[in-house]
Queue: 3 jobs
Job 1
Amino acid sequence: MKEITFLNRNAETWKEFERMVANPSADPDALAKLYIRINDDLSYSRTYYPCTDTTAYLNMLASRAHSIIYKNKRERNSRFVRFWTVEIPMAIYEFRKNLLISFVFFLVAVSIGALSAANDDTFVRLILGDAYVDMTLENINSGDPMAVYKSMSSTDMFAAITVNNIYVSFLCFVFGIFLSAGTFYLLFTNGIMLGAFQYFFYQHGLLGESAATIWIHGTIEISAIVIAGCAGITLGKSILFPGTYSRAASFRLATGKSIKILAGLIPFFIIAGFLESFITRLTDMPLIFKLLIIGTSLFLIIYYFVILPFFQHNKYYGKPETVN
């Protein structure tokens, strides 16, 4: 987009914002709504017109507005709190269609994995490996099918699992650079593995027991892969469909917002690692407690990545916006 087009398209919004900034009695909440828009425009301008009066002007507006908006709300609306409660949810909302695509594609892969295992006796070994299958069969025969979760010390397991979860999700995001093909590949392979894995326990009459144990940590772990898939798809689509931006500018903007989505997963990685290392191994735990943990985990994921984004968008904009 040429700079003059960018100016003409947004000038009225900037003028309105400047009038509000100059008004000492301006409502901080009303300013905050426009402040998000100004920061998006500033981010684009820094990327595409880095050394121009336009960027300098927008930077000045954003700086002045920041001091007014947060002057009397430093603790309640600190930068840290805002990042986690507003910026990440707003990024999720903007790319909610990509999240849905990632979720549906993953479910299809899970179904394919389960159906393949049901129709091919060798499929589970092909996907999970002979060593894992043989070990699990031994555990089943010994009366402790979930013994694999007790094979390491809790502390060592926590570190290894948390790092691995971050690594897998990061790959799912980064591989989006290959026009989303890499992200879809990882979603597909992980979905196939999950489907085959669960069908394996179903074959041995242990679907309920395995699900009640595995999904203690798997609820968050699998959700993280799907959400990282959303970030990766966003990255790929920014190259394929840049809209009115240049591909380079579209990619930079999408990268920044996708990283926010990935950052939102960090506390969930830690929770999932803790659950798998310290709680999943408690296989004799009453079923009600297992279901309570699974339900709480599911609620946290749905609230933060589905409900809160819609709530924050409606708070700042009042009505749904069109997503390309």
Job 2
Amino acid sequence: MVDPAPPRPGRRAGAAHPYRGIGRVGAVVTGWLALSAVASLGQAVITARMLPLSGRGALVVLLTVSALGSLVGGLGTNVAFRHYFGRGDPRVSLGDYLGLSLAATPPATVLITAASLQVIHLSGGARTDTGLTLAIAVLAAANLLAVQVLDALNAAGSIVLAAGLVAATGLAQLGLLLAGPHQPSLQHILMILALCWAAQAVTGVAALARLGLSVRPRADPWAWRLLVVKGVPALGLNVGATMAFRFDRLLVAAFGGAGAAAVYSIAAASGEALRLLPGSVGQVVFHRAARGVLSRAALRTVTRGLLAILLVAAGALAVVAPWLVRTLFGSGYAAAVTPMRLLLLAELLLAPFLVECRALTGLGRTRAAGGAGLLGLAVSLATYPVLVPWRGAVGAAIGSMLAYAVMTALARRALRGELDAPPAFPGPLPAGRPAALPTALATALPAVLPTVRPTARPTAPSPSGPGQPREPGGDEPLTVLGKGMP
């Protein structure tokens, strides 16, 4: 159902300054994620000193495979659920989404564990045994459920709580590592991370229940089919982009060993700190685009402002990189300085993509956004196997620059001609009155929405919570950054 009357101009609609709310909400999310990133950096520093170089490399590899597996194992249903829940579609409930997430966890855990053991065997970073295998499996299951529940919490509009939950999880992991033995085993570290992620998932479900939503898992084949069919195309964006972000570490480990992967992870983590701000703002842009209140001018203004801020931050980090690496990680990681500087430049090339791909997703163009991610993966697959054996960590950084530039260019091209059509605002119709549209709107509507299917209003609360409307951008899905150490 479509209400032809748009919201009245004002602060809530963001009419006077359509980009101001985006920056404000993005700054709040970035603040929480920055705290999570600090906790992750602390974990990286501590584990670099707790574990030998090969053990630290094995930890990096396991976390990388687990992160990739959680995206693949979820089949993109986290993106699909945000789509259906944000539009109030009664065919898909929170219980359906949670039930599908639980059903997908066992097979995903098996695949992630098998892949992790294979990569560990190739890199030679650790000796595999029953204890390590069990720890990897628990880590994989906890990571997948934490990601799925976190997206449900953000879809329900509790962005501040979700951001705080991510930061609290990172701080809890850091505290437990500090409270444990000075020379822990790799299995001990994995179990600490897994238990904290499991606690995050349980806390998230409890928060959803307090919002008045039913958290009882359901097995509805039709709802599951809708989630999978809608979510699988989004894997192109999630998996493709994440593989482009992480595939370099796996190849550095495969060709250079676990020690080289440990050094490169330090360089990559420092560059990824710049990803917090555009990633957070991108989620706000997603929400604005989905509701039809994002303009081309606002998107352009926000993107330019981001690049200006990131340029200053990247320049400062590049200057202090030698001192930063030596002070935090020790002289054994001095080789990370050059790839770190190159990866800082790569992050500047990536920043527009992190914003504009979310605009595409919010507009419903998941295939275009997924195509950009897949093309980035294709460039990675073509360049990393050539550049990494030739130039090592420096070659991996150069390959990242190429992949990120291509992804940004493709997303920007896909956005041409978008954000110009008049928005359609969802809203309820008065009880007992038929759905009627003015003649002019009825004529113009097919150009904006190719198919309009009337649906009943759901009985579940709105994404912003029962009776608690929020400002535009207040219920954005939270970007999954800062989860766990690099």
Job 3
Amino acid sequence: MQLSKNRLPFTFIAFLLWLGVSSCMSESGGRVWAENGGLLTSDGPHFIKGVCYHPVAIGRDTRSFELLAQDLRIMKAMGVNTIRVYEPITSKSALDAISQAGLSVIIGFGYNQDGVYDLQSGTYLDYIKSFKSHPAILFWELGNEYNFHPEWFEGSLDVWYTTLREAADAIHTEDPNHPVGTAHGEVPDADLINALACIDIWGLNVYRWDESHTALADFAQLSDKPVYFSELGADSYMAVGQLGYAQGENQRAQADATQNLLDHILTDSSQVAGVSIFSFTDGWWKAGEPEQQDVGGWAPGSSGVPYDATANEEYWGLVDIHRNKKEAYWIVKSHYDAYRKSER
């Protein structure tokens, strides 16, 4: 969530250009492709009305889909058409349920997931071979704001960007029918966009108070590639009382921030392929004991989080851990229900 930008060394850019990065561009066609600033499917344009989804039950620290049927009903009622996950869904029955509910999935791959469908081991391709024909798949997404974490790559982001380029190339070869994206922390610079020409759609995790829409103009100055907000939102806890919001759990602050964010993004003039709100449900596993909801947590650059400049990591849900709807749920529902960009 930090707001700094990273710039690639010239030597890395030159290396990629020497390799011929244009060779990793996928051809348009197939079930889903990136074109004209958005996504197209065989059924027509797909504007992402999304939510980030990583359901972890009380007392646990790993994802499970035991409440998937209930969650899908809540999402559908909210107007969601796309789920964004941070790691592959390995259950075919779960993917089947998502597709049958009329939703699509952005499948995320991590760099190091202990050799389970991750980029470092190369096993991500095994997953793609198995599921590339599943109707739930919208596109593949590599990494999640890794540019904020050079320490994960022995201090060098070159390792990550090289992996990203090579993985995108391999995916395009294996599956020409789905775009490849990446979720970048804030707006990438021009050098990076040009070096990674193989990325079909850019996701932006942007936290600029309640003015994240300004990132769209910044990106448009650099590229005409499709772009969407891969993370956007606010938590429902105020670390301090300010701006008329009381300290403590505060759903009104979250709702107001969500309202202001979406008011500026879901407009006819916005050059955006969609939005994925962070996040569907609260996560009690993030900051303390997983049996209880704890205040705190840490994220890079939390100063951009409305309206207290603090990311209370266990309070980001549009619904709470028991699936009770927060005030922000109704804000998202009203915006998603009203917005019909694909029909205009």
